[in-house]
Amino acid sequence: MKKVVITGATGFVGSHLADYLIDTEKLEVHGLIRPRSRDEFIRSDVQYHEADVTDYSAIASVIKEVQPDYIFHLAAQSFVPLSFKAPNTTIITNVIGTLHVLEAVRNECPQAIVQVAGSSEEYGLVYPKECPTNEDQPFRPMSPYGLSKVSADLLSQQYCKSYGVRTIITRAFNHSGPRRGKSFVTSKIAFAIADIMVNDAEPVLKLGNLEAVRDFTDVRDTIRAYWMLANGGKFGEPYNIGTGVGYSIEQLIELYREISKIDFIVEQNPEFMRPSDVPRLICDASKTRTITGWKPTISIENTLWDLLYYWVDKLKAERN
Protein backbone atom coordinates (compact mmCIF):
# COMPACT_ATOMS: atom_id res chain seq x y z
CA MET A 1 0.00 0.00 0.00
CA LYS A 2 1.42 3.37 -1.03
CA LYS A 3 1.78 6.02 1.65
CA VAL A 4 0.69 9.64 1.55
CA VAL A 5 1.40 12.62 3.79
CA ILE A 6 -1.07 15.52 3.74
CA THR A 7 -0.11 18.82 5.35
CA GLY A 8 -3.22 20.67 6.50
CA ALA A 9 -4.98 17.30 6.70
CA THR A 10 -7.94 18.47 8.79
CA GLY A 11 -8.64 21.58 6.74
CA PHE A 12 -11.27 22.10 4.07
CA VAL A 13 -9.32 20.65 1.14
CA GLY A 14 -7.11 18.32 3.17
CA SER A 15 -10.02 16.51 4.77
CA HIS A 16 -11.72 15.95 1.39
CA LEU A 17 -8.43 14.71 -0.05
CA ALA A 18 -7.99 12.27 2.85
CA ASP A 19 -11.50 10.94 2.21
CA TYR A 20 -10.76 10.42 -1.46
CA LEU A 21 -7.35 8.79 -1.03
CA ILE A 22 -8.64 6.33 1.57
CA ASP A 23 -12.12 5.57 0.25
CA THR A 24 -11.36 5.57 -3.49
CA GLU A 25 -7.62 4.99 -3.93
CA LYS A 26 -7.17 2.76 -0.82
CA LEU A 27 -3.93 4.43 0.29
CA GLU A 28 -2.27 4.73 3.70
CA VAL A 29 -2.76 8.35 4.71
CA HIS A 30 -0.76 10.30 7.25
CA GLY A 31 -1.93 13.78 8.23
CA LEU A 32 0.01 16.64 9.74
CA ILE A 33 -1.91 18.57 12.39
CA ARG A 34 -1.25 21.31 14.93
CA PRO A 35 -2.57 21.45 18.50
CA ARG A 36 -5.14 24.04 17.37
CA SER A 37 -6.22 22.12 14.25
CA ARG A 38 -9.92 21.50 13.71
CA ASP A 39 -10.97 18.06 14.97
CA GLU A 40 -14.40 17.73 13.36
CA PHE A 41 -12.98 16.15 10.18
CA ILE A 42 -10.55 13.74 11.84
CA ARG A 43 -10.82 10.15 10.64
CA SER A 44 -9.88 7.12 12.72
CA ASP A 45 -8.13 5.53 9.74
CA VAL A 46 -5.76 8.48 9.15
CA GLN A 47 -2.49 8.40 11.08
CA TYR A 48 -1.99 11.91 12.44
CA HIS A 49 1.32 13.50 13.39
CA GLU A 50 1.66 16.76 15.29
CA ALA A 51 3.91 19.03 13.22
CA ASP A 52 3.70 22.66 12.14
CA VAL A 53 5.13 23.50 8.71
CA THR A 54 6.95 26.46 10.28
CA ASP A 55 8.99 23.94 12.35
CA TYR A 56 11.52 22.30 10.04
CA SER A 57 12.68 19.65 12.48
CA ALA A 58 9.14 18.45 13.12
CA ILE A 59 8.35 18.25 9.39
CA ALA A 60 11.62 16.48 8.59
CA SER A 61 11.07 13.99 11.41
CA VAL A 62 7.65 12.94 10.09
CA ILE A 63 8.81 12.65 6.49
CA LYS A 64 11.87 10.64 7.54
CA GLU A 65 9.71 8.29 9.63
CA VAL A 66 6.88 7.77 7.13
CA GLN A 67 8.90 7.72 3.87
CA PRO A 68 5.82 8.62 1.83
CA ASP A 69 5.34 8.01 -1.87
CA TYR A 70 3.32 11.24 -2.15
CA ILE A 71 3.17 14.48 -0.19
CA PHE A 72 0.25 16.85 -0.70
CA HIS A 73 1.28 20.20 0.73
CA LEU A 74 -1.97 22.00 1.51
CA ALA A 75 -1.18 23.72 4.82
CA ALA A 76 -1.41 27.48 4.40
CA GLN A 77 -2.84 30.74 5.60
CA SER A 78 -5.40 30.75 2.81
CA PHE A 79 -7.78 33.63 3.57
CA VAL A 80 -6.90 36.55 1.32
CA PRO A 81 -8.42 39.34 3.49
CA LEU A 82 -6.49 38.09 6.52
CA SER A 83 -3.24 38.34 4.57
CA PHE A 84 -3.64 42.12 4.48
CA LYS A 85 -3.97 42.19 8.27
CA ALA A 86 -1.33 39.54 8.97
CA PRO A 87 1.18 39.63 6.09
CA ASN A 88 4.03 38.38 8.27
CA THR A 89 2.14 35.26 9.36
CA THR A 90 1.01 34.66 5.79
CA ILE A 91 4.55 34.84 4.38
CA ILE A 92 6.05 32.68 7.14
CA THR A 93 3.39 29.98 6.87
CA ASN A 94 3.09 29.89 3.10
CA VAL A 95 6.67 30.55 1.98
CA ILE A 96 8.87 29.30 4.82
CA GLY A 97 6.45 26.43 5.42
CA THR A 98 6.80 25.35 1.79
CA LEU A 99 10.57 25.72 1.98
CA HIS A 100 10.62 23.41 5.02
CA VAL A 101 8.59 20.75 3.22
CA LEU A 102 10.84 20.89 0.15
CA GLU A 103 14.01 20.78 2.24
CA ALA A 104 12.69 17.85 4.27
CA VAL A 105 11.90 15.93 1.09
CA ARG A 106 15.30 16.73 -0.42
CA ASN A 107 17.11 15.54 2.69
CA GLU A 108 14.93 12.71 3.97
CA CYS A 109 12.74 11.28 1.19
CA PRO A 110 13.90 12.39 -2.28
CA GLN A 111 11.80 9.78 -4.10
CA ALA A 112 8.51 11.35 -2.94
CA ILE A 113 6.25 13.19 -5.36
CA VAL A 114 5.31 16.56 -3.84
CA GLN A 115 2.15 18.39 -4.87
CA VAL A 116 2.38 22.04 -3.84
CA ALA A 117 -0.93 23.88 -3.73
CA GLY A 118 -0.62 27.22 -5.46
CA SER A 119 -3.49 29.56 -6.31
CA SER A 120 -5.07 31.60 -9.06
CA GLU A 121 -4.35 34.59 -6.81
CA GLU A 122 -0.77 34.35 -8.08
CA TYR A 123 -1.99 35.82 -11.39
CA GLY A 124 -3.65 38.72 -9.59
CA LEU A 125 -4.46 41.57 -11.95
CA VAL A 126 -5.65 39.86 -15.12
CA TYR A 127 -6.94 42.02 -17.96
CA PRO A 128 -10.12 41.02 -19.86
CA LYS A 129 -8.14 40.07 -22.99
CA GLU A 130 -6.10 37.65 -20.82
CA CYS A 131 -9.15 35.62 -19.75
CA PRO A 132 -9.40 32.65 -19.61
CA THR A 133 -5.94 32.55 -18.04
CA ASN A 134 -3.37 29.84 -18.74
CA GLU A 135 -0.12 28.97 -16.97
CA ASP A 136 1.94 31.39 -19.09
CA GLN A 137 0.12 34.40 -17.65
CA PRO A 138 2.50 36.87 -15.90
CA PHE A 139 2.24 37.11 -12.14
CA ARG A 140 0.68 40.34 -10.85
CA PRO A 141 -0.37 39.41 -7.30
CA MET A 142 -2.71 41.85 -5.57
CA SER A 143 -2.39 40.63 -1.98
CA PRO A 144 0.22 39.31 0.44
CA TYR A 145 -1.47 35.94 0.04
CA GLY A 146 -1.01 36.00 -3.75
CA LEU A 147 2.60 37.07 -3.34
CA SER A 148 3.23 34.24 -0.85
CA LYS A 149 1.86 31.71 -3.30
CA VAL A 150 4.04 33.06 -6.12
CA SER A 151 7.07 32.57 -3.88
CA ALA A 152 6.05 29.02 -2.93
CA ASP A 153 5.35 28.23 -6.59
CA LEU A 154 8.76 29.45 -7.77
CA LEU A 155 10.52 27.69 -4.89
CA SER A 156 8.89 24.45 -5.97
CA GLN A 157 10.04 24.91 -9.54
CA GLN A 158 13.56 25.79 -8.38
CA TYR A 159 13.84 22.75 -6.10
CA CYS A 160 12.91 20.52 -9.02
CA LYS A 161 15.47 22.11 -11.33
CA SER A 162 18.26 22.42 -8.75
CA TYR A 163 17.85 19.29 -6.66
CA GLY A 164 15.55 16.98 -8.61
CA VAL A 165 12.74 17.20 -6.07
CA ARG A 166 9.70 15.79 -7.85
CA THR A 167 7.30 18.69 -7.49
CA ILE A 168 3.91 19.22 -9.10
CA ILE A 169 2.58 22.77 -8.74
CA THR A 170 -1.19 23.16 -8.85
CA ARG A 171 -2.81 26.55 -9.33
CA ALA A 172 -6.38 25.92 -8.33
CA PHE A 173 -8.88 28.67 -9.01
CA ASN A 174 -11.63 29.20 -6.42
CA HIS A 175 -13.07 25.99 -5.02
CA SER A 176 -15.99 25.45 -2.71
CA GLY A 177 -18.28 22.80 -1.29
CA PRO A 178 -19.22 21.21 2.04
CA ARG A 179 -16.89 22.07 4.96
CA ARG A 180 -15.85 25.41 3.49
CA GLY A 181 -15.11 27.86 6.31
CA LYS A 182 -17.80 30.51 6.64
CA SER A 183 -15.39 33.41 6.20
CA PHE A 184 -15.15 32.52 2.48
CA VAL A 185 -17.79 34.13 0.32
CA THR A 186 -19.74 31.08 -0.93
CA SER A 187 -19.89 29.71 2.58
CA LYS A 188 -20.64 33.09 4.12
CA ILE A 189 -23.73 33.34 1.90
CA ALA A 190 -24.72 29.72 2.53
CA PHE A 191 -24.36 30.06 6.30
CA ALA A 192 -26.45 33.25 6.39
CA ILE A 193 -29.26 31.61 4.39
CA ALA A 194 -29.09 28.46 6.50
CA ASP A 195 -29.38 30.63 9.62
CA ILE A 196 -32.53 32.19 8.18
CA MET A 197 -33.94 28.73 7.36
CA VAL A 198 -33.13 27.09 10.69
CA ASN A 199 -33.10 29.91 13.23
CA ASP A 200 -35.34 32.49 11.57
CA ALA A 201 -32.41 34.92 11.54
CA GLU A 202 -32.72 38.42 10.14
CA PRO A 203 -32.85 38.05 6.31
CA VAL A 204 -29.92 40.38 5.64
CA LEU A 205 -26.61 39.30 4.08
CA LYS A 206 -23.65 41.61 4.62
CA LEU A 207 -20.98 41.18 1.97
CA GLY A 208 -18.07 43.01 0.35
CA ASN A 209 -17.29 43.38 -3.36
CA LEU A 210 -20.21 42.00 -5.37
CA GLU A 211 -18.65 42.59 -8.79
CA ALA A 212 -15.61 40.30 -8.52
CA VAL A 213 -15.77 37.42 -11.00
CA ARG A 214 -14.34 34.03 -10.05
CA ASP A 215 -14.14 30.52 -11.49
CA PHE A 216 -15.60 28.09 -8.91
CA THR A 217 -14.78 24.37 -8.93
CA ASP A 218 -16.23 21.87 -6.50
CA VAL A 219 -13.58 20.84 -3.96
CA ARG A 220 -14.30 17.18 -4.72
CA ASP A 221 -13.34 17.78 -8.34
CA THR A 222 -10.30 19.81 -7.30
CA ILE A 223 -8.81 17.05 -5.15
CA ARG A 224 -9.29 14.54 -7.99
CA ALA A 225 -7.20 16.84 -10.15
CA TYR A 226 -4.51 16.92 -7.45
CA TRP A 227 -4.30 13.13 -7.46
CA MET A 228 -4.33 12.83 -11.25
CA LEU A 229 -1.62 15.46 -11.65
CA ALA A 230 0.53 13.81 -8.97
CA ASN A 231 0.39 10.68 -11.11
CA GLY A 232 0.51 12.19 -14.58
CA GLY A 233 2.00 15.67 -14.43
CA LYS A 234 5.50 16.66 -15.47
CA PHE A 235 7.70 17.44 -12.48
CA GLY A 236 8.52 21.08 -11.83
CA GLU A 237 5.62 22.42 -13.88
CA PRO A 238 2.50 24.36 -12.88
CA TYR A 239 -1.04 23.26 -13.71
CA ASN A 240 -4.25 25.29 -13.57
CA ILE A 241 -7.42 23.73 -12.15
CA GLY A 242 -10.78 25.31 -12.90
CA THR A 243 -13.97 25.11 -14.95
CA GLY A 244 -13.43 27.92 -17.47
CA VAL A 245 -16.67 29.63 -16.37
CA GLY A 246 -16.79 32.79 -14.28
CA TYR A 247 -19.50 33.95 -11.87
CA SER A 248 -19.75 37.32 -10.18
CA ILE A 249 -20.69 37.38 -6.51
CA GLU A 250 -23.99 38.94 -7.58
CA GLN A 251 -24.64 35.92 -9.81
CA LEU A 252 -23.84 33.54 -6.95
CA ILE A 253 -26.34 35.38 -4.78
CA GLU A 254 -29.04 34.90 -7.42
CA LEU A 255 -28.18 31.20 -7.72
CA TYR A 256 -28.57 30.91 -3.96
CA ARG A 257 -31.98 32.64 -4.15
CA GLU A 258 -33.12 30.04 -6.70
CA ILE A 259 -31.72 27.10 -4.74
CA SER A 260 -32.97 28.12 -1.30
CA LYS A 261 -36.27 29.79 -2.24
CA ILE A 262 -35.48 32.25 0.55
CA ASP A 263 -36.01 35.99 0.22
CA PHE A 264 -33.23 38.11 1.70
CA ILE A 265 -31.61 41.52 1.39
CA VAL A 266 -27.94 42.07 0.50
CA GLU A 267 -26.02 44.96 2.03
CA GLN A 268 -22.44 45.89 1.14
CA ASN A 269 -20.23 46.35 4.19
CA PRO A 270 -17.09 48.48 3.67
CA GLU A 271 -15.33 46.39 6.33
CA PHE A 272 -15.39 43.43 3.96
CA MET A 273 -13.76 45.33 1.09
CA ARG A 274 -10.07 44.56 0.42
CA PRO A 275 -7.42 47.28 -0.02
CA SER A 276 -6.96 45.90 -3.54
CA ASP A 277 -9.00 43.22 -5.24
CA VAL A 278 -8.68 41.11 -8.36
CA PRO A 279 -11.60 41.95 -10.65
CA ARG A 280 -11.71 38.76 -12.73
CA LEU A 281 -10.12 35.29 -12.60
CA ILE A 282 -11.26 32.64 -15.07
CA CYS A 283 -9.29 29.47 -15.67
CA ASP A 284 -7.85 27.92 -18.79
CA ALA A 285 -7.22 24.35 -17.60
CA SER A 286 -6.53 22.88 -21.04
CA LYS A 287 -2.99 21.85 -20.03
CA THR A 288 -4.31 19.86 -17.06
CA ARG A 289 -7.11 18.33 -19.10
CA THR A 290 -4.77 17.32 -21.93
CA ILE A 291 -2.20 15.65 -19.71
CA THR A 292 -4.60 13.90 -17.29
CA GLY A 293 -8.04 13.73 -18.89
CA TRP A 294 -9.47 15.48 -15.84
CA LYS A 295 -12.62 17.52 -16.11
CA PRO A 296 -15.05 18.91 -13.54
CA THR A 297 -18.10 16.73 -12.92
CA ILE A 298 -20.08 18.64 -10.27
CA SER A 299 -22.14 21.67 -11.33
CA ILE A 300 -22.03 24.99 -9.53
CA GLU A 301 -25.68 24.49 -8.55
CA ASN A 302 -24.91 21.15 -6.87
CA THR A 303 -21.87 22.63 -5.12
CA LEU A 304 -23.92 25.49 -3.68
CA TRP A 305 -26.75 23.14 -2.71
CA ASP A 306 -24.40 20.78 -0.86
CA LEU A 307 -22.73 23.69 0.90
CA LEU A 308 -26.05 25.21 1.94
CA TYR A 309 -27.30 21.94 3.42
CA TYR A 310 -23.97 21.30 5.10
CA TRP A 311 -24.70 24.43 7.12
CA VAL A 312 -28.39 23.61 7.56
CA ASP A 313 -27.48 20.23 9.04
CA LYS A 314 -24.84 21.76 11.33
CA LEU A 315 -27.22 24.43 12.62
CA LYS A 316 -29.96 21.86 13.22
CA ALA A 317 -27.50 19.68 15.12
CA GLU A 318 -26.51 22.64 17.27
CA ARG A 319 -30.16 23.30 18.13
CA ASN A 320 -30.58 19.68 19.19
- List unreliable stretches of 5+ residues: none
Classify the secondary structure makeup into a structural class.
Answer: alpha/beta
Give the strand tally: 14
CATH class of the largest domain equals: Alpha Beta
Number of domains: 2
Radius of gyration in whole Å, from Cα? 19 Å
Largest pleated sheet: 7 strands, parallel
Annotated CATH homologous superfamily of the largest domain: NAD(P)-binding Rossmann-like Domain
Structure description:
- The chain is 43% helix and 17% strand.
- With 320 residues, it is of the alpha/beta class.
- The chain folds into two domains: 3-176 and 217-241, 3-Layer(aba) Sandwich (Rossmann fold); 185-214 and 245-280 and 297-319, UDP-galactose 4-epimerase, domain 1 (Alpha-Beta Complex).
- The strands form four sheets. The protein has a seven-stranded parallel β-sheet with strand order 3-2-1-4-5-6-11, sandwiched between helices.
- Strand 1 (3-7), helix 1 and strand 2 form a beta-alpha-beta unit.
- Helix 6 crosses helix 10.
- The longest helix is centred in the first third of the chain and has 22 residues, at 87-108.
- The model has no long low-confidence stretch (mean pLDDT 96).
